[in-house]
Design brief:
It contains 18 helices and no strands. It is mostly helical. Helix 1 packs antiparallel against helix 11 and helix 12 packs antiparallel against helix 13 (about 280-305).
């Protein structure tokens, strides 16, 4: 696939806009969900809920790699009913083992995160299986350019989560809110599965390769750990209302990354193609602007009125967390640059992929040492971000600015092997 870097904005508008709008609606719905259940639960219970939701997201992040691999499979071989069924069945089988492991570790998760009962930890297992199949289904549809259908899956999931969340949280508390989240993923799967039963096109059978999924998963998981591990550690180290305040502030901050993450899905193929062509530095710069621009603008708005945002979402319960919101939102905005640079490394199959993992390790070490308050944990996140972003800039931006593509030891252009793997 040959792309003109100068056409990047137009390509992004056509390819990313429906997903960006859907993710924006999902993000707004996520905030509304947190606001609704946060008002019905006390601060400690809300802290428990936010921690388990973060764990659900963490379990689901490697599934972004499944979505990417499924999309590439369809782009290469076309979409057929047989390949769709084979892919979904294979992904369900892959996710069964990890789900059983999560189920076996439920008592440990309950004790570590101070949850009220096993039901709150057990729901991670079915969520993992359903979310895995949903990711694969979305990937198949994206490969077939059924972007509108994928957007609808986000809309439906958001609506189901809001309605059931309001209905189930009052009688069942944290367990009810988590059940609404699982049901939302199931609703998205039902929407995605319908067009896959009778695809429009005809394709040749193809196999989803675990190696390609694992390579992309390394990048996606490292990024998610880097941006979310503070949430889990905050719940472990903070007590009473402090953990709830951190979860509330972090939820607002992480929303800044939602739309850029959707746009990144459209930017990555351009990075993959642009690495082989002259002017690839402009491709990286344009991709960075497309992804980080919305994050910085969103962060600027929240930083200007953090108390208002907290009051609208959570009432007066977390009004004193405005400084915490400013710190975490600023970290989230700059983390979007780490995201772009990590995907740039993935496009050329570079070892730079390990940098976010190193950043997450540094973040864990800092928080484990300094965790006396919520603000101290947030400052540890900022302290881990600075060297991580600087190292990524030094390693990736310098390489992309070169005039000629790099060639590996066997004389094969790195970008070509990257395209083949993708």
């Amino acid at each position: 696939m040959k792309l003109d870097p100068g056409r990047l904005p137009g390509l992004l508008a056509r390819g990313a806009l429906p997903i960006a709008v859907a993710v924006a609606v999902q993000s707004a719905g996520n905030l509304a969900f947190h606001a609704a259940v946060g008002r019905q639960l006390d601060a400690d219970a809300y802290g428990a809920l936010g921690t388990v939701l973060a764990a659900m997201m963490m379990l689901g992040v490697p599934l972004g790699a499944v979505q990417t691999a499924a999309s590439a499979l369809v782009a290469e071989h076309g979409l057929s009913r047989a390949s769709a069924r084979r892919t979904l069945r294979l992904v369900a089988c892959w996710s069964l083992g990890p789900a059983l492991a999560v189920l076996a570790c439920a008592p440990l998760l309950r004790d570590y995160f101070h949850l009220a009962g096993l039901a709150e930890a057990v729901q991670l297992a079915p969520y993992l299986i359903i979310a895995a199949v949903v990711a694969a289904a979305r990937g198949l549809l994206l490969g077939a350019r059924r972007i509108g259908t994928v957007a609808v899956t986000y809309f439906v999931a958001t609506a189901v989560r809001l309605v059931l969340g309001l209905a189930l949280t009052v009688p069942f508390g944290v367990s009810g809110a988590l059940a609404a989240t699982v049901a939302a993923e199931l609703a998205a799967l039902l929407v995605a599965a319908r067009p896959l039963r009778h695809p429009d096109g005809t394709g040749t059978p193809g196999a989803l390769r675990l190696g390609a999924v694992a390579h992309a998963g390394m990048a996606v998981t490292g990024l998610f750990l880097f941006s979310t591990v503070d949430l889990l550690m905050a719940r472990h180290h903070l007590r009473d209302g402090s953990s709830g305040a951190y979860i509330a502030a972090a939820t607002v901050a992480k929303t800044v990354l939602a739309i850029p993450a959707g746009i990144m899905a459209a930017v990555f193929p351009r990075l993959l193609a642009g690495w082989r062509r002259p002017g690839r530095g402009r491709v990286l710069a344009a991709g960075g602007l497309a992804v980080a621009g919305p994050a910085v603008l969103g962060a600027a708005v929240i930083v200007a009125v953090p108390a208002l945002v907290l009051r609208v979402l959570y009432g007066d319960g977390y009004a004193d967390a405005d400084v915490l919101v400013r710190a975490l939102v600023s970290v989230a905005a700059l983390t979007s640059l780490v995201t772009v640079l990590t995907y740039a490394a993935l496009a050329r199959r570079a070892r730079t992929l390990v940098v976010p993992w190193l950043g997450a390790g540094l973040e864990v070490a800092l928080i484990q040492t300094w965790h006396a308050s919520a603000l101290q944990i947030a400052l540890c996140s900022a302290a881990a971000l600075a060297p991580t972003l600087l190292l990524m800039l030094l390693l990736e931006a310098r390489v992309w600015a070169r005039m000629t593509p790099q060639v590996d030891a066997d004389g094969v252009e790195e970008s070509r092997s990257a395209a083949t793997a993708a």
